[in-house]
UniProtKB/TrEMBL annotation:
The keyword Oxidoreductase applies. This is NADH-quinone oxidoreductase subunit N. Residues 128-422 form the NADH:quinone oxidoreductase/Mrp antiporter transmembrane domain. It is an enzyme of class 7 (translocase).
Amino acid sequence: MDWSQSLRLIAPEETLSLAGLALLLVAAWAGDKAARAISIAAVSVLVAVMALVAPALCNGAMGPETVAFAGQMTADAFASFAKLLIYGSAAVALVVAPSFFERVGAMRAEYPVLILFAAIGTGMMVSAGDFLTLYIGLEMNSLASYVLAAFLRSDDRSAEAGLKYFVLGALASGILLFGISLTYGFTGTTSFAGVHAALGGGLNTGMVFGIVFVLAGIAFKIAAVPFHMWTPDVYEGAPTPVTLFFATAPKVGALGMLMRVAIVAFGSAAGAWQQIVIFAAVASIVIGALGAIGQRNIKRLLAYSSINNVGFILIGLAIATPQGSAAMLTYLAIYVAMTVGSFVVVLMLRDADGNPVEDLADVAGLSRTQPLLAAGMAIVMFSLAGIPPLFGFWGKFVVFQAAVDAGFVPLAAIGIAASVIGAFYYLKVVKVMYFDEPADKVAGERELAHTVLLVGTGLFLSPLGYLLTKWLGGLSGAAALALFHFA
């Protein structure tokens, strides 16, 4: 094993680890008064590591030269694609946080440090080449996330969100660990490559149970039905910048981890897990759409929207082809932009006293009192609904096209039909903003960072986004090929 080569491949994790430890010491010595400076430094580090991982994606890195520490980590184009989304989302969660926490007197120096450590764990999840590395990364992300969910210590909803997330997260980790133990027991290895080779010789009942438990544990992390029950409560109770982080970076990491486990580790036994993924996809689409219809809290509505979108993304995995995986990654990139835009809008919904406005009835008539904010929210809602010509339509289109090309026509048909149900509650938000009598609740001042992010995501989701389809499709295709090349 070439140690220098391995250390070079994990340079992003090394950089983030050293920066996180250094900033932790600064936070301990300087206290909360240095919180903004630490946040700026953390964003700078995240941008720097994005520059470190980008060449692997642009060059389509794959094969043995991307494997570090005898298969424990893999720094290929797929990992690079996922890490760019993870680190970018983490940076956004840091940029939008200071104004939110300072209004409630809760801006603490440990917030950016926790985000950095969560980003390290999430990056390890998508780079893992062994179940041991995967579990370490997962727990590193989870431990930081539990604290972030309960970050507002004086808020009962935040404390409740943290407790629920911790209890259910511990249960999911136990299920995953039991599945890993079964897999090791019946294959004799925790290496993804070794498991792939062992499953190629045939399945027995113990291996099937191992696959089921591993997928069940990961399903909790991506909030797929039937392991979605924590999502609405945690999204509503956690501070909004933290909710934005949960809905983007860990979601990308968990989906990337699921793709690598399913295709690389369990790829030689695709028939054993395809039906599970198909059920989770269809159930998530339907439950996510139906569950959102009666929601009055915007953050809870977006939680069900997240469950719904995970269902569409899983259609690409169920196909188990490079085209399906490329479609997943394309959808995932667009989903991150839509999620950032939606939660930035939620952060901008404040009353005259600076208190957050989260009830749907309170944004009634927003188009007449805050026309630009209403327009930004309408673009995000139409894009989430998949209505052309907005860019959100393209994500659904490539996933359904991949399903049809692979012969999964009934699955694509169910997804298309369920999209109509989902469109109802997105359009309801637009209807309330544009056609109801003004509630005149939203009157807060606008932060420059929020405005810039909303304009940026709005332009990306507008028809101008279609100019990026070839470029985004090329990157997604290169990342998917790296995944299947390793398998």
